[in-house]
Design a protein that fits this description.
Its main location: membrane. There is one protein chain. With 345 residues, this protein is mainly alpha-helical. The chain contains 14 helices and 2 strands. It has one domain. 72% of the residues lie in helices and 1% in strands. The protein has a two-stranded antiparallel ribbon with strand order 1-2. The longest helix has 29 residues, at 188-216. The two termini are 24 Å apart. 43% of the residues are buried.
Length: 345
């Protein structure tokens, strides 16, 4: 849950699926599933669904949080709504017999809750960053979390990466810094939130990787928690901490007086964002089941390009040649990073 999602965005929650699981080649089933859907290869339809869902999630959240759109100033309330709806829809899928979830157990909740706090911090900081930073620059800066994760991998887990990987990571970092320096709409508060988001995204990925084996000791089948249960736990357990944030930032006093809540367009945007955030969970898993983790990651990196362009056009984000060049280099570095890391593996 590319959460499962900008909310559980693909770069954040959904993008972790490829890191946590590199699926082996499955045995050939007796009854082969259909290879075409709507006259197109299933893998292509799954990939398009994932790209459209993840891209739409970013654009819709930016639209909802952009001060120039609706002037909605309660991002934690919007996040709470999205989490509540996602948890409800996942539970409804279980009740309909479509999926099976790990039941809520005290010991499992206790082990998972630290992961959940990092999840809330990751998604929350992305919401605050989106309020003040353009979509294109948010997209470029999300690559910085790869750099932080790689450094922590070396320091904590004693991993090693090839010189090509480090070169692409350095290029990502350089493009992000130059992009911020040449950003005509630069906002200190926005970039501070974005830097915090990079840190929390890396912390979430690293801690989730380390805690999965501990979680397996408390699941009913003694296996690692499946992705649907992760989506359910993350969204359901996020609600109490988010409510605390709402009180901390004073949103509980101003929420009902927000003019945006009387705007039908805002309500539609908020609802669509929540539904697509839920849909990302399934589209990401569907696409990953149809292809390899490498292709999944590569498509995610390529998808940042149209998302960045859409953000610039849709929100009329001010730019200049230097800033556009840094964005392009950063996005290309993201693609080269996937290729270099795959070769290194």
């Amino acid at each position: 849950m590319k959460q499962v999602n900008m909310r559980s965005s693909p770069d954040e929650e959904q993008g972790l699926l490829a890191k946590l699981k590199e699926p082996a080649t499955p045995p050939t089933p007796v009854n082969k599933p259909p290879t075409r859907l709507f006259g197109l290869p299933v893998v292509l339809v799954a990939g398009l669904a994932y790209c459209v869902a993840s891209g739409s999630m970013v654009i819709l959240n930016k639209h909802a949080l952009n001060p120039k759109s609706f002037n909605f100033t309660a991002p934690n309330a919007l996040l709470a709504f999205q989490c509540a709806l996602a948890a409800s829809l996942v539970k409804a899928c279980e009740l309909l017999g479509l999926i099976k979830l790990q039941p809520l157990k005290k010991d499992l909740v206790f082990v998972w809750f630290p992961v959940n706090l990092l999840f809330v911090a990751m998604i929350g900081t992305s919401f605050y960053a989106l309020q003040h930073v353009g979509v294109a620059m948010v997209t470029v800066w999300k690559n910085v979390s790869n750099f932080v994760t790689a450094v922590c991998d070396v320091a904590i887990y004693k991993k090693s990466y090839s010189s090509q990987v480090w070169a692409t990571l350095a290029l990502m970092l350089l493009s992000a810094v130059v992009g911020a320096y040449t950003d005509l709409s630069f906002s200190w508060s926005g970039y501070i939130w974005q830097i915090a988001n990079c840190g929390f995204t890396s912390a979430y990925a690293l801690y989730l990787r380390s805690v999965m084996d501990k979680v397996a000791e408390h699941t009913t089948n003694k296996q690692k928690m499946d992705e649907f249960s992760m989506v359910y736990y993350n969204n359901l357990l996020s609600i109490p901490p988010i409510l605390v944030l709402m009180f901390f930032f004073g949103e509980h006093r101003t929420l009902l007086a927000q003019p945006a809540l009387q705007n039908p367009t805002f309500l539609v945007v908020a609802l669509l964002g929540a539904l697509i955030g839920f849909g990302i969970s399934f589209s990401a898993l569907w696409f990953l089941s149809q292809t390899t983790a490498t292709i999944y990651s590569l498509v995610g990196a390529l998808n940042k390009i149209p998302v960045a362009i859409m953000g610039i056009v849709a929100f009329k984000e001010a730019s200049n040649p230097q800033n556009m060049a840094s964005i392009f280099i950063g996005l290309m570095a993201g693609i080269l990073f996937v290729v270099a890391k795959t070769r290194g593996n």
